[in-house]
Design goal:
globular, five-stranded antiparallel sheet, 13 helices, about 500 residues, alpha+beta, about 25% helix
Length: about 500
């Protein structure tokens, strides 16, 4: 049985000194303290949600331990600890686990543990001019702490990623030493690929120069990775087969954070990450106090467990494409500080629900919406248009690999599994392939609907929608100044029928 007297002082103080005074005189203090604890627990839930989500993803360490880097469930990149796993093509639109993936880049993913050893992060030396690539490095809380890549002109070579307690000198031959504020970090490689064999081969060639190894396994010279071999290595948890997933993709639709286990999972995450960033340190101390309080008394445990359930329901109800962010003009919304969250725990939690691991906003700007020009929810049964005036497409820096795309998602933020024209997004890729039809005045009108337009030019510019409610996301990679300072505005989404 828990012994409340052994709890830390900060936890014990929540129990009034004399809760059982005659005539219920101790009840007001007891209720006041409970209300404080409940309010604090709600804030801690929002603060910690991304960390618990991220920490849960380290389950790939054990799953992939024997197999090496591969494709978890045959669909997502996974790898053992301090290794990177890869796909060799865009993520399948049929998958029903990862929300709002892009269909612009091929992914490599690594979750590292820097407790005992640093890791070597290799950047590519041989990159064709204009080819986009990045290695996004996030701490346990999904805040971007380093963003390497073509946008920032990162040189090819090796960098040493170290944990918060590391001390030492930069090894010979390394570009730099990068520090993570937490022991667990996520590294996400991306290499742009259009929908052609030539472009995908180019993307793979760059991705094969991007990777992660434990420092003890490093060797002189450039390391070589193999995204195609990784993608072929399809790994399934016990009791799950490829046939089961193919027959029922929805079996993977499990929320990444289980509110009934939240506090236990948070305790595990903080135990492996005793140090956190300066922006998260005060809340980490509050979280540890609540964990001690929960362990000290079953009544407090019941209150905290119930609060987690309520906070989870509220977070998911509010974190919708039609609600997240602030006005960015013409009905679009934006989180201005995407990836660079600082102490914006609320915005970070919302992002973890709808598009976890967004890049730093200097690298990529995400504009979202779930409504039309009249403020009504977007529905596939209607027809919508998005018209860009002449020379008014999203301004991105093509020299540094910049591109943009408008991606279609269903109500649950998955792509269309079987798009009638093969498109799940539309943008730079289609422009480069000369697939889109411009009007005589130089404008470009995109058509969004479930049903194919009758007009031939409209068909060329058609992005199919699902039967029901849908949401839109515009990604602008390597944004230029008008996007960064909000002076550029996307055109509205106009319901036409």
């Amino acid at each position: 049985m828990p012994n409340p007297s052994q709890a830390p002082y900060l936890a014990r103080q929540f129990t009034p000194a004399h809760p059982d005074l005659p005539d219920a005189a101790g009840v007001p203090a007891r209720l006041a303290n409970e209300r404080y604890v409940e309010s604090l627990a709600r804030i801690v839930y929002y603060w910690a949600y991304p960390a618990v989500d991220a920490f849960g993803r380290t389950s790939s360490w054990e799953l992939m331990k024997a197999s090496g880097p591969g494709a978890t469930m045959g669909l997502f990149p996974g790898a053992p600890k301090n290794t990177m796993g890869y796909l060799d093509d865009h993520m399948s639109p049929a998958q029903r686990k990862v929300v709002t993936p892009n269909s612009d880049t091929i992914y490599g993913v690594s979750f590292v543990d820097l407790t005992r050893e640093a890791v070597v992060v290799q950047t590519p030396n041989d990159v064709p001019k204009g080819q986009y690539w990045t290695i996004q490095i996030c701490d346990l809380f999904t805040t971007v702490v380093h963003q390497l890549g073509s946008a920032s002109n990162t040189p090819g070579g090796k960098l040493l990623l170290v944990g918060p307690n590391w001390s030492g000198e930069k090894p010979d031959g390394f570009i730099d030493v990068l520090r993570s504020p937490t022991n667990v970090a996520g590294l996400f490689g991306r290499s742009f690929a259009a929908h052609t064999g030539e472009s995908k081969a180019r993307a793979r060639a760059v991705l094969n120069q991007i990777g992660v190894v434990a420092q003890s396994l490093d060797r002189p010279g450039p390391l070589r990775f193999d995204c195609e071999a990784s993608a072929r290595n399809k790994v399934f948890p016990p009791g799950v087969t490829a046939e089961m997933v193919a027959a029922d993709p929805d079996m993977l639709r499990a929320r990444p954070v289980d509110p009934t286990r939240f506090w236990d999972q948070l305790a595990e995450a903080l135990a492996l990450n005793p140090a956190v960033s300066a922006d998260d340190a005060a809340m980490a101390a509050q979280a540890r106090t609540l964990l001690a309080l929960r362990a000290s008394d079953s009544a407090w445990g019941t209150l905290l467990d119930r609060t987690a359930l309520a906070a989870d329901a509220e977070l998911h109800a509010g974190a919708r494409y039609e609600q997240v962010g602030v006005d960015a003009g013409n009905g679009w919304q934006r989180q201005d500080n995407g990836g660079a969250w600082g102490t914006d725990w609320f915005g970070r939690a919302q992002a973890a629900i709808i598009y976890i691991y967004v890049n730093d906003f200097h690298e990529a700007i995400y504009l979202i919406r779930g409504t039309d020009d009249k403020g009504a929810l977007l529905q596939g049964r209607y027809r919508y248009t998005v018209t860009f005036p002449k020379d008014a497409l999203p301004p991105v820096d093509r020299d540094r690999g910049g591109f943009w795309s408008l991606t279609m998602y269903d109500r649950d933020y998955f792509m269309l599994a079987n798009s009638p024209n093969g498109r799940t997004n539309i943008g730079t890729v289609n422009l480069d392939a000369d697939e889109l039809k411009f009007a005589a005045d130089g404008s470009l009108t995109l058509h969004l609907s479930r049903d194919q337009p009758a007009d031939k030019d409209a068909q060329a510019n058609w992005l199919p929608a699902p039967d029901g409610q849908f949401a839109l996301l515009v990604r602008s990679y390597v944004p230029m100044k008008p996007l960064l300072d909000n002076s550029y505005q996307l055109p509205n989404v106009v319901r036409s029928h």
